Hints:
Strand 5 (62-69) and strand 6 form a beta hairpin. It is built from two helices and six strands, in the order αββββββα. The model has no long low-confidence stretch (mean pLDDT 88). By secondary structure, the protein is an alpha+beta fold.
Amino acid sequence: xxxxxxxxxxxxxLKQRGYTLNFNIAFDKLQCSTNGLCLNPAEFEIMExxxxxxxxxxxxxxxxxAIEAKTGGHKGVLTSAYGLYADSxxxxxxxxxxxxxx
Length: 102
């Protein structure tokens, strides 16, 4: 597992290792707006997780997920503040992400 001091370093390091897509949460799936790819929880694996805590500002807290599709070779990242579960998200997707943030 790699070690990064900042979110920017993590994103750059993952990009250099082939995680080039940017995913967003779309209720019950991850979606990439660049190519229209949508992945349901059963269609991807979380390969790495990096958690960052703001030293002085709680709003600086963030999680970076390295995501790999089970088919097609698609790799990308999902970044989310610790409050990601405040957004509208399905129970299945929430469970998958939460299992990698503890």
